[in-house]
Amino acid sequence: MTDHIQVISHEPLCPVRVDVVGEVVMVSKWRVIVVPEGLTWEESHRSLLSRILTCEMTPRAVQVAASTIRWTGTNCGRAFLHEAKELMASAGENAYLFAWAKANKRESGKRLIEHIVARPSDFSRMSGFPALGLKSTPQVSSADHEVIDCLMAWFGCEAGQLFLEDCEREVRARLKSKLKIRGVTPNPA
User: According to the lineage, what is the superkingdom (predicted)?
Assistant: First the structure.
């Protein structure tokens, strides 16, 4: 049972890597728009997430949503968003759902959702580098699938597109600034 006085926390299952600009931007902007600061579970009906989801807003649903947002800030997640955006011309607002269905198909025994909802202890470690795979498969519920499907549907609508465009602008600006600090001339694209 959820303590209704407890403040809703939008922490992903794996912590945001501070050296991955996309993760930092996506999760920080998500926290700003999804829930007014200090919102409790009793007031959860006021959150944007409660309007995005068609399933019950539980602590797990909030973590899965935050984990999905975190993933969209990774290189793989950003590539996924780019591919889905290109589908908008032909698939309209269903583009992200279609792209998700393709990306989440089982390959090498795993689905993408299993990587997204995995905790740090589920990942393999090789020579101190981040995981290249999972050593254990996390439990994935139908509610977890529902949360991600709802986010993908939201990404295809106007509000979701505005969120993604705002995030992408900031990611590009921060990466450009990082390159300037290092003395590298950024690519004009």
Answer: Bacteria
What are the start-end ranges of the H helices in 35-157? Answer: 48-52, 59-72, 75-91, 95-103, 112-116, 142-156
DSSP state of 20: -
**Please, what is the end-to-end C-alpha distance for the chain in angstroms?**
49
Q: Are 78 and 68 in contact (CB under 8 A)?
A: no
pLDDT digits (tens, 9 = 90+) for 72-123: 999 999 999 999 999 999 999 999 999 999 999 988 788 999 999 998 888 8
The rounded Cα 83 to chain-centroid distance in angstroms is 15
Q: What is the Cα–Cα distance from 163 to 84, expressed in whole angstroms?
A: 15
Residues in CB range of 25: below 8 A, 6 or more apart:
73, 167, 170, 171, 174
For tokens 């908008």, the residue is 88
The single-letter DSSP state of residue 5 is: T
Task: Compute the distance between CA of residue 82 and CA of residue 85 in angstroms, rounded to an integer.
Answer: 5
Q: In Å, how far from its chain's centre is CA 40? A: 22
Residue 7's DSSP bridge partners are 40
Contacts of 48 (CB under 8 A, 6+ apart): 33, 34, 35
Residue 59 in tokens: 């602590």
